[in-house]
Each structure stands twice: as structure tokens, then as C-alpha cells.
């Protein structure tokens, strides 16, 4: 009788002991030229992320030149005193680096990603762009033309058109927040190299700027690198600039941007709320996520799964401008799209969700899932140096302490169902929401008026 062959198995791998995770804390410093430096050593992150924040907010743009901050941001990579636009692009490519920039209400940000082995080269190019941008007339003219070409496409995009209309409705006409961030056709076409240079000279200086460096800094003398590169950037000391308070009118009303023949209606419902300095922020984040943060949230369960009106509806809070003195604000909004015939029924059910939330509250199960999704996946969210650098830059931009994000995750985990319910109900009161609908007014106006959620106005799509 033959013996059965035996097999030896390798021992089954056992899980290691779970290690606590917290959002990384940066080290702070200051260069001789006044530039604030935040650094964060992340072993293994061989692509280093660098963020530069410039105190050049949109409300500092000269009257009639909305968009000049955006053109300036784009022009930083279009040549310096050492390289033409083509040469600068080639130098970035040789370093394996990317350089992006954009302007928003708090200011202008430049984002550099470069291999750790070529960090010196990348910082040198970044320094040249900030220290001595060329702002050549031909390059600025090209950027202006490109921006003018973008505007019709944005107006044709239903979600972008809805956002433009909501800002116009919420904020007074005198507020920069009421107008498109990147300017309008009327304002952008007035921008030239002289206007860009004047905005740069007035607002861009190291004394009011911050640089964030995140990545594997093993064997790197970052102090010496920064002194040799960004340390060569000079400028006058900054002067305090008055910051206007954020005001808005969230009287319940509906604006329909008419798109005859549209088969879908884009909806954007919003108002302003507190920024991240407010103690309600963690509960508001949690409650808003329960309302419409993911596929399993209430809005999607009703409007998508039960009724089939939409592919998805989301609720969110987006900081517009943050300030410790209470003058900051965030945009609280619900967005999505529904098919045209069901626009009225979808809005009716959406309002029912909000009313039910106020009457019955969230469930413990909803709260638990939200905490798991927001807090549990945080280590994955911040695997890259760029993600960490961007969040650290957000904290600087919003005048928050360096441990804000780490503290926020602890607060989210400790927030109860009752707190989250109260915060989201206060964030989205059914009678204080401005509703923008981009769709076929002839088909959706009457059903929407019948809902009684506010006076209905129709405007042309442009």
C-alpha cells in the first residue's frame, strides 16, 4: 500500500500589531528673506512636493481686471530672466518636474513635484519663476487669448454655469466672490503684461509667502538648498491689508438658467456657513457626509437608488476664505443632475429628505459609516507627498494651527449622532437655500413653482 505524499505549507502570515496613525506634523522655520518654511520628512516618498502660497487674493485685483491673478499664476512658468518660456519648460522636463499654479480667493499657489534626487534643480527653477518672472508681452497675450477661449466652454458646461449663477445670487455685486474666479471676457481682454507686472510688484514678496516641502529628505541639506534657491528671492516687507467680511443673501429662492431642449437639469443648491475655525466644523463635516457624501448617503439612497432620478447627488462644504476673527466663510452646497421630466419630483423628494432629517435625525449606523469612511481611510488618502503638502498648505492659507488636520480626525471620531444631526440641519435649513437650475425652463418652471420652495426667476443662459 503506497503512502500518500505529504506537503509542507509555509506558515500563514499573521497580521502585525496595528500602529496608530496621525496626520504628520511639520517643522517650521524662516529664511533670511522672511519666507516661512514648513517641512515634513516622509521616508520613502521619492517624489518631493513643494507648495508656495502667495498673499495675492482675488479681492486684491484692481477694479475691472478680474482674472489678472490667474494670468499672473499661469505666467510664472512662461519664462524668467534666465530662460525663455520654451527653455524653462525644457528645464522642467529635464529635471522630471512639473510646475502648476492657480489663483483663488485666498491667494495664488504654485505646486512643484520633482524627484528627490533633482530637488536642487527643481527648487532653482521655482525660485527663478518667483524671483524674476519674464512676463513677456507675447506670452501674456497668448495666455489672455487662451483664457478668452476657455470662457465660452465654461458657460456651456452646466455645472460651471450653475456655480457662476449661484455666486452671483449669493454675494453682493460689490463682492469679488460674486464674480468668476478667473475673470470674465470683459475683464480678461483688458489684461496685458503691464497689468500682470503691476499686480506682481504689489503683492508677491517672500515676507508674506510660505513654502511647504514634503517628501523623503534623507541626506538632503534642505536648509542649504532653500538658502541657495528661494533664499535669493527678495522683496519689500508686507503691509497689513484690510480683508472685507463675507456677506451673502440666502433668502430661499430659485433661479432657472434657461437651456431650451436640455434633457437634464443641473442643480446646485447652496448658502454660506462657518469656516474651519468654528467649533461646529467637525460635526458639520460628519453630518454633511451622512447627507450626501457618498453612494450610501441619504440623498443617493432616495434620489438614485429608490427613485432613479440621477446618477448621483452630493452635499459638501468648501471653504471660501478662512479667518480666526470670524470673517471667513464656507460654501455649503448640494449638487447633481436629474432628467428633465423628473426635475420637480426630484426637488420635492430632496426637500423631503431635508425635512425628515430635521424631524427624525441621523441614525447611529449612518454616523458610524461616515466616521469609518472619513477617518478610517485617512492613511490611504495621505500616502503621497503631494496630498500631505496640499493639506498643510490649506492649513496655512486658512490660518489654522499645524495640528489642525490631526485634531480634526480625533474630533470626527468623537462626534456623536446628535451633534452631527444638529450641524447638518443648521447647515441646510429648508427655507434658507438658494437653488440654481440649469435646464429647459419651459418644462421645469411650473413644476418647480408648485413646490413652494421660493420665488422662481428665469435668466438667459448667455
Automatic annotation (TrEMBL):
InterPro entries in the cross-refs: Metalloenz_LuxS/M16, MPP/UQCRC_Complex, Pept_M16_N, Peptidase_M16_C
Coiled coil: none
Domain of life: Bacteria
GO molecular function, one term: metal ion binding
Domain Peptidase M16 N-terminal: 38-171
Peptidase M16 C-terminal domain location: 190-374
PANTHER family the UniProt entry points to: METALLOPROTEASE, PROCESSING PROTEASE
Name under which the protein is recorded: Peptidase M16
Naturally occurring in which organism (per UniProt): Streptomyces capoamus
Amino acid at each position: 500500500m503506497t503512502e500518500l505524499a505529504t506537503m509542507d505549507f509555509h506558515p500563514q502570515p499573521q497580521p502585525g500589531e496595528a500602529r496608530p496613525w496621525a496626520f504628520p506634523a511639520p517643522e517650521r522655520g524662516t529664511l533670511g528673506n522672511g519666507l516661512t518654511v514648513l517641512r515634513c520628512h516622509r521616508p520613502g516618498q521619492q517624489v518631493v512636493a513643494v507648495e508656495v502660497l502667495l498673499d495675492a487674493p482675488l479681492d486684491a485685483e484692481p477694479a475691472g481686471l478680474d482674472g489678472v491673478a490667474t494670468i499672473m499664476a499661469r505666467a510664472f512658468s512662461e519664462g524668467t530672466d534666465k530662460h525663455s518660456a520654451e527653455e524653462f519648460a525644457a528645464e522642467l522636463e529635464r529635471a522630471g518636474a512639473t510646475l502648476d499654479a492657480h489663483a483663488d480667493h485666498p491667494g495664488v499657489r504654485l505646486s512643484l513635484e520633482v524627484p528627490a534626487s533633482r530637488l536642487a534643480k527643481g527648487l532653482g527653477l521655482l525660485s527663478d519663476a518667483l524671483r524674476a518672472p519674464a512676463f513677456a508681452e507675447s506670452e501674456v497675450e497668448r495666455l489672455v487669448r487662451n483664457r478668452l477661449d476657455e470662457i465660452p466652454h465654461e458657460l456651456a458646461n452646466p455645472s460651471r454655469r450653475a456655480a457662476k449663477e449661484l455666486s452671483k445670487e449669493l454675494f453682493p455685486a460689490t463682492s469679488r466672490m460674486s464674480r468668476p474666479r478667473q475673470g470674465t471676457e470683459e475683464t480678461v481682454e483688458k489684461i496685458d503684461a503691464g497689468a500682470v507686472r503691476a499686480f506682481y510688484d504689489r503683492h508677491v514678496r517672500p515676507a508674506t509667502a510660505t513654502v511647504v516641502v514634503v517628501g523623503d529628505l534623507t541626506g538632503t541639506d534642505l536648509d542649504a538648498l532653500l538658502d541657495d534657491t528661494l533664499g535669493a528671492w527678495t522683496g519689500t516687507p508686507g503691509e497689513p491689508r484690510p480683508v472685507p467680511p463675507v456677506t451673502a443673501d440666502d433668502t430661499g429662492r430659485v433661479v432657472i438658467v434657461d437651456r431650451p431642449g436640455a434633457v437634464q437639469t443641473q442643480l446646485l443648491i447652496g448658502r454660506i456657513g462657518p469656516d474651519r475655525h468654528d467649533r461646529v466644523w467637525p460635526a458639520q463635516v460628519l453630518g454633511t457626509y451622512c447627507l450626501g457624501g457618498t453612494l450610501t448617503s441619504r440623498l443617493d439612497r432616495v434620489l438614485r437608488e429608490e427613485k432613479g432620478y440621477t446618477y448621483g447627488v452630493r452635499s459638501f462644504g468648501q471653504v471660501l476664505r478662512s479667518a480666526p476673527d470670524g470673517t471667513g466663510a464656507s460654501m455649503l452646497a448640494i449638487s447633481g443632475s436629474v432628467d428633465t421630466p423628473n426635475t420637480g419630483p426630484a426637488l420635492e423628494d430632496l426637500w423631503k429628505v431635508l425635512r425628515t432629517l430635521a424631524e427624525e435625525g441621523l441614525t447611529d449606523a449612518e454616523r458610524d459609516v461616515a466616521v469609518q469612511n472619513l477617518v478610517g481611510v485617512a492613511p490611504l488618502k495621505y500616502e503621497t507627498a503631494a496630498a500631505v503638502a496640499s493639506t498643510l498648505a490649506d492649513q496655512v492659507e486658512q490660518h489654522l494651527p499645524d495640528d489642525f488636520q490631526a485634531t480634526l480626525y480625533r474630533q470626527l471620531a468623537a462626534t456623536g449622532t446628535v451633534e452631527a444631526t444638529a450641524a447638518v440641519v443648521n447647515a441646510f435649513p429648508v427655507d434658507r437655500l438658494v437653488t440654481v437650475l440649469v435646464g429647459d425652463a419651459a418644462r421645469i418652471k411650473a413644476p418647480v413653482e408648485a413646490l413652494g420652495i421660493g420665488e422662481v426667476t428665469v435668466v438667459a443662459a448667455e
